[in-house]
Amino acid sequence: MIQKQTSSLEHYTAQIDLLLNRALQKIDQLHWITLSSVQVKGGESFPDARTVVLRKILKNRELVFYTDKRSPKVTQFERNKNAVALLYDRTAQMQLRIKGTIEIDTQSALYENARDQIPNQAKVNYNTLLAPGSALLNENPDRTDEVIHFALVRFHPHTFDLLHLTPEGGIRIKAKNTDDGMLSDARWLVP
Ligand SMILES: Cc1cc2nc3c(=O)[nH]c(=O)nc-3n(C[C@H](O)[C@H](O)[C@H](O)COP(=O)(O)O)c2cc1C
User: Fold this and answer.
1) What's the 50 CA to ligand 1 centre distance in angstroms?
2) What is the dihedral of CA 15, 98, 26, 74, to 10 degrees?
3) How many angstroms separate the alpha carbon of residue 29 from the centre of ligand 1?
């Protein structure tokens, strides 16, 4: 009984990296991730969330997203770096909830490299004259040719929470991301 559980725990821990690596693939449903933040307004905290595309996974499972640095999420992350990234694989019935912290990067070599490789057709995501969320008189914002508002959103995970729905009930584990790139303290949770 104990032996069986240990082996299954390893199996489920391994699913974390499998799901993350699948999320890098443009043809996979996991490529679009829900990234949540905290918005502080008038002294009150409100949850916020949006869909983002996973662009890169760096060492120690750091997740890299692209954005416009004037977007509300950037202000939110600068005020409160805590975030959750959420993935759900409908076919496998697995949810991966990742807690971590955000760093906005507009100056590293990684940033410059990513900015210089943005395809022409994707520049529209970072080149409006007004900031994302600004009011418009019609549906077409004015644009420049440059991507001067591009930024990297770098997500540093600290905890992974994986839930697998099965006909017999949910199976859930939690594991910590460590500085040396290992997943540690894996344990079962009530689903
Ligand atoms: C399929 C899809 C993919 C998206 N990918 C990104 C992305 O990679 N980066 C991004 O900043 N916004 C992306 N967006 C737009 C965001 O969901 C959001 O509307 C926008 O970034 C403004 O968010 P904010 O007001 O929370 O800053 C995407 C939206 C959709 C529907």
Assistant:
1) 6
2) -170
3) 16
Identify whether the C-beta of residue 16 lies closer than 8 Å to the C-beta of residue 96. Answer: yes
Q: What is the mean pLDDT of the chain?
A: 94
pLDDT at residue number 147: 87
Specify which residues 47 forms β-bridges with.
Answer: 38
**Ligand 1: nearest atom to the Cα of 133:** 25
Domains in the chain, CATH or no CATH each: 2-129+146-189 (2.30.110.10)
- The residues pairing with 71 across neighbouring beta strands, listed in sequence order, are none
Question: Would the pTM of this model clear 0.90, i.e. be above it?
Answer: yes
152 lines ligand 1 (CB under 6 A): no
Q: Which long-range contacts (CB under 8 A, 24 or more apart) does 119-126 make?
A: 123/147, 125/66, 125/68, 126/66, 126/67, 126/68, 126/150
Report the percentage of the chain scoring pLDDT > 90. Answer: 92
Q: Is ligand 1 within 6 A of the CB of residue 55?
A: no
Q: Residue with the nearest Cα to atom 3 of ligand 1? A: 52
